[in-house]
Design brief:
The complex is a heterodimer of chains A (225) and B (622).
Chain A lengths: L1 E9 L8 H15 L15 E3 L8 E11 L6 H9 L6 E7 L10 E9 L5 H11 L6 E8 L2 E8 L5 E7 L5 E8 L8 H11 L6 E10 L8
Parallel strand pairs in A: 3-10
Antiparallel strand pairs in A: 1-3, 1-4, 2-3, 5-9, 5-10, 6-7, 8-9
Chain B lengths: L2 H6 L26 E7 L3 H4 L3 H12 L3 E7 L3 H10 L17 E5 L6 H10 L15 E5 L15 E3 L3 H18 L3 H8 L5 E2 L4 E5 L5 E6 L7 E2 L27 E4 L1 E2 L9 H5 L4 E2 L2 H15 L3 E5 L9 H12 L5 E3 L10 H8 L6 E6 L3 H6 L6 H13 L4 E8 L6 H20 L10 E8 L16 H14 L5 E5 L4 H9 L5 H10 L13 H10 L4 H5 L14 E2 L4 H12 L25 H12 L1
Parallel strand pairs in B: 1-2, 1-3, 3-4, 4-5, 9-19, 10-13, 13-14, 15-16, 16-17, 17-18
Antiparallel strand pairs in B: 5-6, 7-8, 11-12
Helix pairs in contact in B: 3-6, 5-17, 6-7, 9-10, 13-14, 14-15, 17-18
The chains are: A alpha+beta (225), B alpha/beta (622).
């Protein structure tokens, strides 16, 4: 048995596919390829698959990861990539397969790129307004969380989570906002919550926004591999 | 993707319903085809995507280079609200094109309570709902499926219906449409020509006259339309098109598995069952075709479950060799075979053994009626002994959940017959605890579902009144009163929908006005408890001067002209009368392999019926 980490992107229409549905989608793709997955032991054996932290529904990503275990060790990483590429829907693309370097739960942060087509303001104007928003003393938002088993609303201050924050205009003349947000099983900041707050404060209701997870980091800015 | 769509998707539940792009969906350049076909299922994505017919016809039409078939499902209420807010018309999943831009718009009519949802989809797609308001040849609205066997209550909304098996008639329809479209012909010219294709019914070419009492005086064809439209029958299931791949949805749907059809028709002749009559004559697929198709579909989809389907799976003449052949590759790949529609009297040790090769779930049987007399009335042809033998086999093999389906309000039913349902349930509970080999500590659950009976056209009970609401309620109460055993769970259908279902099933054209009025009052998704509003429906009936009881609770005479008499769906009226008369005597009719009862359906298949073939084979062998 051999552990393999598959990195993949989830873009376009696939951004509307929930985490649970992704699991099913991959398990069927593996089935079609005939890649010999290791099954969990127990009453109802299932193929072992371990995904990264769920991506917010509606967000795209080029940094997703999935760990599998191969029953047949002679199968190479290249085989896995080639077979799986032919079996996944077009908007889910396999980027690489390799032995894991870090543990899944070592992930601490996600790097997001928001691309915004403004309705009210010019792209540069909006970039400045968003930068201004970040200068406020507090940026309080309500975040749903859990206290024991109970669901509760917690207030957090986004001012505390502005790591590597910047705004600008991209080559196609759209407003951009970049930020690195916490995303570990213990604590995460939802990118939609973040963006909505900034857009609300900047008084903009854009025509279109794109949320893209660009990279995953462990502690000390180490790229997750 | 349309920016309006992208804007509203984050605001709705399950956006995965509205995006398309599933594995094995078909991409074509719409400008490269002569005909664009929007295949509509009048219910949610999860239900529509579970339907086999849509998959067959989707791939069949898309085999043609001159046509592009795309899918449309009914958006749920939250999506509808958002779509109306931003002005987004109902669109196809493949290319996001509004419904109004399609040449043909096809609906599959699986249940009567989806009729208003068809209107909802047309309206949301910017298509006039009435046939007469769609002047050109574009936006031709067509329908097929079981409810097309009596489509009179929706005759004003559809341009034509396809009766019977869809595979061949659909191709004929598209050939004709292409010819007339390219020639720039009018809709009227086209419809008259279409009425000459076997299996196509153009309701606007028939004039219906009524007696004072509301019954039909006559149905007269106009021009060259045939006096009687015969349903289409695919003669050979081994050579007819079957897709080698299935759409694999991202989101969870109701039946999320591969499906393989093994035969059409049914040999049983249960007198309440419309499907058992309208899909006759029997046509079987060969074991080798089924096995090859099933394997291909599993490979193309990655499904780990395949359902082998028909009206009564264990009646397939090759069921044992089929299961052995399939087990050869399914068990190795950890694929689960599911066998719905097992008859209780054919449940055997061998069959259980085959099922045990794979995963084990609960068992479901349908005795349909509690007393032997009642089972004879409906010609179910199973005895109490059959039932008890089967449940004992099931218990010996470790099953501890049994679900039993019954009907309430069957013709000629008495309270004693109803009470017998609980009696049977109690016997089953006792049989479980009498089994010395049962797993200690594991308790039995017997779920009894008792649904009110709805008489349907083309069955021996098509003349019979539906039981009244008060009588059904009385019977339901009696069931709950009697079911005191703790292992016995009774669920009974409480909704008013079945009374309307009964009206539409045997309705005439005058109901079109009621359906339109109810739709205008906001009725659609009527099969969803949360959406159904009996009050609005009753208002609609009243405003149209009609009574639902006229259709549901009235006994018809054999002489009365029935709204569907000009449509031939197989069984002859003489046969149905014979069967109804036997029902009154609680006399049974043997199944088709034992003895052909001359139902008449084989006429539509050049005199061929696979049940008859089996009789001949049996004779020549002996």
């Amino acid at each position: 048995m051999r552990e393999v980490r598959i990195r993949f992107s989830k873009t376009g229409k696939a951004k509307y596919i929930s985490h649970l549905d992704m699991t099913r989608c991959f398990s069927r793709a593996f089935f079609r390829t005939g890649i010999p997955l290791w099954f969990t032991e127990g009453f109802n054996p299932r193929p072992y698959m371990n995904f990264t932290m769920p991506l917010t529904l509606g967000a795209e990503s080029v940094a997703e990861a999935l760990d599998i275990r191969l029953e047949d060790e002679s199968m190479t990483d290249e085989d896995v990539v080639r077979l799986l590429r032919g079996a996944l829907p077009p908007d889910i693309k396999v980027l690489s397969a390799a032995a894991p370097v870090h543990k899944m739960n070592a992930i601490k942060e996600s790097r997001y790129r928001f691309t915004i087509e403004p309705e009210t303001y010019g792209a540069e104007d909006l970039a400045e307004r968003l930068a201004k928003v970040a200068e406020a003393e507090h940026l309080l938002v309500e975040k749903s969380g859990k206290k024991g088993k109970k669901k509760v609303l917690k207030t957090i201050d986004l001012k505390d989570y502005l790591k590597d924050f910047s705004t600008g205009v991209d080559e196609e003349g759209r407003t951009e906002l970049l930020v690195t947000l916490p995303s570990s099983p213990q604590f995460g900041v939802n990118p939609r919550l973040f963006l909505d707050k900034f857009l609300h404060e900047a008084e903009e209701e854009p025509l279109r926004v794109r949320m893209l997870r660009e990279a995953l980091f462990c502690d000390d800015n180490i790229l997750f591999e | 993707m349309d920016p309006k769509l992208e804007k509203i998707l984050p605001l709705v539940q399950k956006p995965g319903r509205y995006i398309g792009g599933e594995l094995n969906s078909v991409e074509k350049d719409p400008s490269s085809v002569d005909m664009r076909f929007a295949f509509c299922f009048p219910d949610t994505y999860e239900i529509g995507m579970s339907h086999l017919g849509i998959k067959i016809l989707y791939y069949l039409i898309n085999e043609r280079e001159d046509a592009y078939c795309e899918r449309v499902f009914a958006p749920w209420l939250d999506m509808e609200e958002q779509m109306r807010k931003v002005g987004l018309p109902l669109f196809t999943l493949e290319t996001g094109t509004p419904l109004s831009e399609f040449d043909l718009i096809g609906f599959t009519l699986q249940y009567e309570m989806s009729f208003t949802t068809c209107l909802y989809m047309l309206e949301l797609g910017g298509v006039p709902i009435r046939s007469e308001d769609r002047k050109g040849l574009n936006n031709l609205v067509v329908g097929g499926g079981p409810c097309a066997c009596n489509p009179e209550p929706i005759a004003d909304f559809f341009d034509l219906f396809m009766l019977g098996d869809g595979e061949e008639v659909m191709m004929d329809l598209l050939d004709l449409y292409k010819e007339y479209k390219l020639r720039g012909a009018s809709k009227e010219e086209f419809l008259e020509a279409a009425s000459h294709i076997g299996g196509i019914y153009v309701p606007s070419l028939y004039e219906v006259d009524y007696h004072e009492d509301g019954t039909i005086a006559s149905v007269t064809p106009r021009g060259t339309a045939p006096a009687v439209v015969k349903k289409r029958v695919v003669a050979d299931l081994d050579s007819v098109f079957y897709p080698d791949k299935f759409l694999v949805p991202y989101i969870d749907i109701v039946h999320d598995r591969a499906v393989e059809e093994i035969y059409r028709g049914c040999i049983r002749g249960c007198r309440f069952c419309q499907a058992g009559f309208i899909y006759r004559p029997i046509r079987e697929k060969s074991v080798s075709t089924i096995n090859a198709q099933a394997k291909r579909v599993c490979e193309a989809t990655g499904y780990d479950e395949i359902s082998v389907i028909s009206l009564s799976t264990s009646d397939y003449s090759g069921i044992q060799p089929l299961l052995s052949d399939m087990a050869d590759w399914t068990s190795e790949k950890k694929i689960n075979i599911s066998l719905p529609s097992l008859r209780i009297d054919t449940f055997s040790d061998e069959l259980v053994e085959k099922l045990n090769l794979i995963r084990r779930s609960g068992l479901t049987f349908a005795p349909e009626a509690g007393s032997q007399r009642m089972r004879d009335v409906i010609n179910k042809n199973i005895t109490e002994e059959d039932i008890m033998k089967s449940v004992r086999i099931a218990f010996q093999n470790g099953y501890s959940t049994v679900k039993l389906y019954f009907m309430l309000g069957l013709p000629y039913e008495t309270m004693e017959d109803v009470e017998a349902i609980v009696g049977l349930g109690k016997q089953i509970v006792d049989a479980y605890y009498q089994n010395p080999d049962r797993v200690k500590g594991r308790n039995l659950t017997v779920n009894i579902s008792a649904s009110p009976f709805v008489p349907k056209p083309f069955t021996p009970f098509q003349w019979e009144p539906q039981d009244t609401k008060s009588s059904i309620e009385e019977k339901q109460e009696r069931l709950h009163e009697l079911a005191t055993k703790t292992r016995l769970h009774i669920s009974s259908h409480k909704s008013d929908t079945i009374f309307l279902e009964a009206a539409f099933a045997r309705g005439d054209r005058r109901l079109c006005a009621v359906i339109q009025k109810a739709f205008e009052k906001g009725c659609y998704f009527d099969s969803w408890e949360t959406c159904f509003d009996i009050q609005k429906w009753m208002e609609a009936f009243e405003e149209c001067g009609l009574e639902p009881g006229f259709y549901s609770n009235r006994r018809r005479s054999y002489e009365e002209v029935l709204p569907w008499d000009h449509l031939d769906n197989g069984p002859s009226k003489e046969f149905l009368i014979r069967e109804n008369e036997k029902a009154k005597e609680a006399a049974v009719t043997p199944h088709c392999r034992e003895q052909c009862s001359n139902c008449g359906a084989q006429r539509l298949n050049g005199g061929k019926c696979d049940a008859l073939l089996k009789i001949d084979r049996g004779r020549s062998a002996s």
